[in-house]
Structure formats: structure tokens, C-alpha cells
Amino acid sequence: MKIGYGLVAALAATCGAVAIAPMHAQGVKTSKTAKTVAAAPTAGGPRSEVVGTIGDTKITFGDVLDRVQKENPSGFNSTVAQLVGLDASKSLFGPTPKSSYTVTKPQVVDLLRKQNPPLLGETLKTMLEFDAVDREVKKKGINVTTAQVDTRIDQFLKMLRTRGQIPQGVTDAQFLEQNHVTRESLRKNFLVQAKLFSLIQQDFVEKRLGHKLTPDDFFKARHILIKVPMPAPGQKPEDAKKADADALAKIQQIAADIAAKKKTFEQAATESSEDEGSKVMGGSLGIQMRKVLVAEFENAVYALKPGEVSPPVKSQFGYHLIQLEQKGAEIPEPERQQYLDTFESGQMQIFLHDLLTTKYKVVNKLARESPNMPMMVPGQ
Q1: Residues 228 and 296 both lie in one domain
Q2: Phi and psi at residue 213, in whole multiples of 5°?
Q3: Domain match, 18 and 127 both
Q4: Digits of tens for pLDDT over the chain (380 positions)?
Q5: DSSP calls for 255-312
Q6: Taking the CB of the first residue and of the last residue of the chain, which one, N or C, has fewer CB atoms within 10 A?
Q7: Any idea what the CATH number is for the domain that residue 245 is in?
Q8: Is the CB of residue 283 less than 8 Å from the CB of residue 323?
Q9: Considering its fold, how many domains does the chain have in total?
Q10: Is 175 within a domain?
Q11: Residue at a domain's end among 291, 312, 330
């Protein structure tokens, strides 16, 4: 699954998927009476500075620090150690070296605000995302149950196990305990993910479909594609017609071979399909959803019964032969849900961007990127 960076960071930190090795500053003293060697704290103290807003809610720098300390103490300690260590190094070994280095807690807070490490901006972004999602689900009356959240957690742990991140012989409970994570802490973050996916399903999927999502909106199919070359500049109309006729003749011959049982559909797809993405899988497109593929393709699919092969179907991509494998409730519910999660994950950046910039106009003064633009995250 793919999700917005703030949510990914929260999940990663919660499940221990991202380990941040603590760094300990050597020889650093802390004292309430120590002399100031770092820059003087800003007037009123940076903790009271408003660094984020959503609606009429204001989030201060102190709120962000408290959240990081509570939910990612190792990351916070590492960040502080690096900044203080660097400050100590400059003080002790810089152009005008001092013989000792002392620092107060207010000075550290001021240093954090001035240096603005990425961890703080990411944490504030997560806080703003969570708030925006909560506001939106309340507005739309969406209710997510604990059972739904637990199902998502189980799927996530299964994915980690499949990737080898949970060793064989280690139970899910043992893995969480080893990473100092409770299932309850996981529920908090997966609850937000479940809410967000519910919003996307309602606002994007069901608006596209024009009705509530049902099992009948899913199908599993294979296809064979023979491309029709795009007309070259100055190409004669008769040449374009010949290219189209040649592609049609080629796919008709493939269809005849399949009908005569000279080849299976999978064999023909592997040998002849010009869709490089699916040919290696015997033409398999896996599970698809209504209103995602081009209309010509979809119309042909829904005219078939499982096992049937369509006549040649022309689309903007060329000529297709389509074999319907399963549709509707014939596809197991977990497989349909996995496809839907993947699809909705792909829409998450778009949805979050609209939510944060258009509907709620959030402000994140700690963001390293554009203050209102959700940061992108590498594919997971």
C-alpha cells in the first residue's frame, strides 16, 4: 500500500519498520544554571509559536515537540543529540574554541526551532492530516469499526511476513513486543488509514461508478494486444488503413488458433501480445474494477461469461482479445479488498492534497517543501 508521507512515517515508526539508531552526544552537560553558549532563545520562547493551523485549530511548536517525544522518543533523542552535538563541536573546536560547553533546555528548544529538523515537519504534517481526516469523516458520517481496523493490521503484518521482515517462527505478537509496539498503538494509525480509504472510496470511487461499490464492480481478465501504429506525419490514408488491417488480421489469426485449441490463451499472450506488462504473465491483468480501463475494453468484459474469449476489440491502444476469468462475487473478498486498497492508495496523494489545500487550507510552517503540499513518498 502506498500512503501520504506523514501517514507512512507514523506507521513506520509505530511498527518499527524504520529503525533510527540513537546517537548520544559525548561530554554534553545540561544545567538550568548554565551560561548561554547557543543563540539566545526567541522572545516568549519558541514553544508558544503557532507553527500549524487547520480551520480554527492552532498547533504550537511545543505541541509538536510533545507529540514527537511521546510517539517517537528514539527519533527525538537522536535528533536532539545530533543538533546539540554539532553545536558543542562548533563551540569547543570552532574558530574561537571554548574550554567547556553547557546548554539549557530552553536553548535546545530554540536550537530545534531554528534548525527545523525534518522529523518535526513530518510530525506536524501527520498531526494536520489526522485532524483533516477526522473532520471529513465526521462531516460525512463515516464510521469505521475496530474489526475493520484489526483486519487492516492483520493484512499489514502478513505483508511484513511475506517480505521476510517478520522471521519464521516469530508470531505477530512476539514481533510487536520485540519492537516495543502494542496492537493498540497500531490501531490508532490504522484507524486513520481506514478512515482515509473510506473517504476516497466515497469521494472518488463511488462518484466515478455512479453507485455504491458492489462485488459486481470487480473482474479478473487476461488480454492479448496487437498495437496499431500511430500515423506518421504525412502518412497517406491508405497506408494507415493497411496498418490497421494488418493488426486486425494478426489478432484474428491468434483468435483462430485459440479457438482451434492450437494454443491456450496464456500461450498465445506470452508469444504474441504487445502489452509488455502483461504478456509475461500470460496476458493476466489480475483483478480490475469497473470504470478504470477504457470503455471499449470494459464493455467487452461485461458481455462475456467466465472462460469466454471476446472477438477482436479495438481501443485507442490497438486490437485486444479478452478472456474473462472471474467476475463479481466469484472473486474472493480478500482479493477484491486488496485490489481496492492498492487502487485507493494510488489516489491518496491526490485526495490528501485536495483535502489539505482546498477544503481546509492547512498551514505547516515546519514543512521543508511547499507549506501546503503533501510530500511524496517512494513506492512501498
Answers
A1: yes
A2: -65, 135
A3: yes
A4: 333 334 334 444 444 332 222 222 222 333 333 232 333 444 568 999 999 999 899 999 999 999 999 988 989 999 999 999 999 999 999 999 999 999 999 999 999 999 999 999 999 998 999 999 999 999 999 999 999 899 889 988 988 998 899 999 999 999 999 988 888 888 888 898 899 999 999 988 898 899 999 999 999 999 999 999 887 787 788 888 999 999 999 999 999 999 999 999 999 999 999 999 999 999 999 999 999 999 999 999 999 999 999 999 999 999 999 999 999 999 999 899 889 988 888 888 889 889 999 999 899 999 975 444 443 333 33
A5: HHHHHTTSS-HHHHHHHH---HHHHTTTTEEEEEETTTS-HHHHHHHTT--TT-BPPP
A6: C
A7: 3.10.50.40
A8: yes
A9: 2
A10: no
A11: 330
- The domain boundary, picked from 289, 311, 330, lies at 330
Q: Which residues contact 258 (CB under 8 A, 6 or more apart)?
A: 264, 265, 268, 309, 321
- What are the φ/ψ torsions at residue 105 (nearest 5 degrees)? -60, -45
My answer on whether 122 and 219 are in the same domain is no
Could you tell me the three cell numbers for 169? 517462527
Grid cell locating 79: 535528533
Q: Quick one: 236 and 321 in the same domain?
A: yes
Q: 258 lies in which domain range?
A: 215-330
Q: What H or E segment, with its residue span, contains residue 325?
A: strand 318-327
* Cα–Cα distance, 121 to 12 (Å, whole number): 16
Written as one letter, the residue type at 362 is V
Cell of 291: 470504470
Judgement on whether residues 39 and 90 belong to the same structural domain of the protein: yes
Buried b (16+ CB within 10 A) or exposed e, 312-337: bbbbebbbbbbbbbbbeeebeeeebe
- Does 322 fall in a domain? yes
Same domain flag for 4 and 115:
yes
For residue 18, what is the DSSP state? S
Q: Pick from 211, 214, 323, 200: which is nearest to 268 by CA? A: 323
Question: Coil, strand, or helix at residue 129?
Answer: helix
Are residues 136 and 5 part of one domain?
A: yes
3-state helix, strand, coil in the chain (%, to 5): 55, 10, 35
Does residue 191 form part of some domain? Answer: no
